[in-house]
Design a protein that fits this description.
8 strands, single chain, Rossmann fold, globular, 28% strand, alpha/beta, two-stranded antiparallel ribbon
Amino acid sequence: MDADQQPHLRHSVAILWRGDAAARRDATPQNSRFVRVFEALAASGIEARPAVYDESFADAIRDQLLAVDGVLVWVDPIHQGKTRAALDPLLRDIALQGPWVSATKALWPEGASDTPLGRRRGNRIGRYCCGA
């Protein structure tokens, strides 16, 4: 049975990008550079939520990401002098706790033959072959 026949099954995704506290406070799907992504996900029945990241409020982001089914990550490796040194371990932890994370392959050690990918059901950790 597909999702169209089960309207009560609604998935949620956080769209994660870097910004400051003001950007986080003011972020909406309509005023984001990802407005078309938000629209496409909504048209597919997926609730997408803005998730603006900065190291200064990483704990709030962590809580937000743990509350969704998946995370689409749009954070550059280096942006205005900031790196993903703190973000990548956070995303690894999120993926291990349940939500899938779009940048999973980039989060695991070089040369790994497969990567852990969180699953919501029963907190089991599945394995996803990255096709190295």
